[in-house]
Amino acid sequence: MQPTSRRSAKTPSLARHGRLRRSAAWKTILKGVAAVAAVTLVSGGAVAAYAAWDLASSAQPTVTLDSEKVLEGVPDVGAIEGGVNLLVIGSDSRQGQGDGFGDPDEETAVLNDVTMLMHIAEDHSHVEVVSFPRDMYVPVPGTCTDPENPDEELSALSSVKLNSVLAYGGMDCVVKTVEELTGVTIPFAGIVQFMGVAGLSEAIGGVEVCVAEPIEDPYTDTYLTAGMHELSGLAALQFLRVRHGVGDGSDLGRISNQQVFLSALARQLQSDGTLGDPVKLYSIAKVALANMQLSSSLTDPTRMISIAKAMKDVDLSKIAFIQYPTGYMDDGVVPAESAELVNQALQNDEPITFDPNADQTDFASAADPTAPPASPSAEVAAEGDTGEAPAEDASSDAPVESTPPPGSLPSDVTGQTAAEVRCSAGRTLADQ
């Protein structure tokens, strides 16, 4: 299943991925004026005007996505109107990341080891964050352009591992591949490397996570005892990278571990009011602009803030972190039949509900051992209860099948909501 193309085998550097946007000077000036005006309305005064200029000056070179054509006009200074589909791509490139992540000259691969799609509903009532396994075999459409020669289209690929697509065709190609896989249009995307993740976690102020069993992972130098840990900077990054020290040691285990972190992050952002605070959002946007390669649709600071504000009032139980359902094949995985149901939910803007009878702890996360027991089920009450004992039923001894609630997905669609507090199920060196 080796990919073939008309380009050389040489892997392009991260900075050359995608097509750089060439803006005329007058367009740049107008964009700056619009950003200043919008942020001034949000926060007021000359400080806000400076903040908008400061954000724009922090931005890295951008990538223009073909799908950006669906965006029209300038975003409002409040929550963005309508739905949002945003792809977050985590690159394992060592270029420019210092000495703590291996030799960049030796470890030159540019793999999208993390690929997450965030979907915010049209009415902002629910959010889905779908994690796609890095070793999932996917087709790549024939509409990707060569990052080294944007005028040349690359060949379509019938089946390659998802994490090879970034090196093959850059950010826009990863977006197109996920669009073809899910059937949704994705006008926003960003690539983040190791130090970018560390910087973002510091800007947020750290995240407190629960660890059920000790994590011992020499590959990321992560050693955490059972209990609660506040993680920031490098420690947060390494927690998100842990694979051998959690669950079954697989990439699927790492995804579940990442969901423990992300659900805790969502709870924190809502509880401390960050999503409604322009000053806090500004500091996070500044770090993102300085540490991520963003699609040009995201480099407007007011748009970044308006997307964040869309999540301000979403009920935590309506924020779902989903592991894209797959089945094993050879040295990787392939989408399971139920993946199409996830696709349809995204396409139809429907909230995803997990089957409560599904085992959600196969890989990494476990229920919080300190949480109080669930309240007794109301199902024991008889329909139309009058206070009298229910009539004896001859079939009461027969086994009762537990059925998932209407709208929930099959039991192989796993994950958790942001309202659920879970703990990482660690592995010690003795278990590896």
The helix/strand class is alpha+beta
- Lateral strand order in the biggest sheet: 13-8-1-2-3-14-18
String of helices and strands: HHEEEEEEEHEHEEEEHHHEHEEEHEEE
CATH T-level fold name: Aminopeptidase
CATH homologous superfamily caption: LCP protein
Can you identify the CATH class?
Alpha Beta
Shape: globular
Q: End-to-end span in angstroms?
A: 30 Å
> What's the structural domain tally?
1
E-strand count: 19
- Architecture in CATH? 3-Layer(aba) Sandwich
Low-confidence stretches: 1-50, 374-402
* Percentage beta strand: 15-25%
- Kindly report the average pLDDT value: 78
Protein architecture, described:
The chain contains nine helices and 19 strands. By secondary structure, the protein is α+β, with helices and mostly antiparallel strands. It has one domain: Aminopeptidase, CATH 3.40.630.190. Strand 5 (145-146) and strand 6 (149-153) form a beta hairpin. Helix 1 crosses helix 2 (45-58), helix 2 (45-58) runs parallel beside helix 7 and helix 4 runs antiparallel to helix 7. The protein starts with 24 loop residues before the first helix and ends in a 7-residue tail after the last strand. Mean pLDDT is 78; it is low at 1-50 and 374-402.
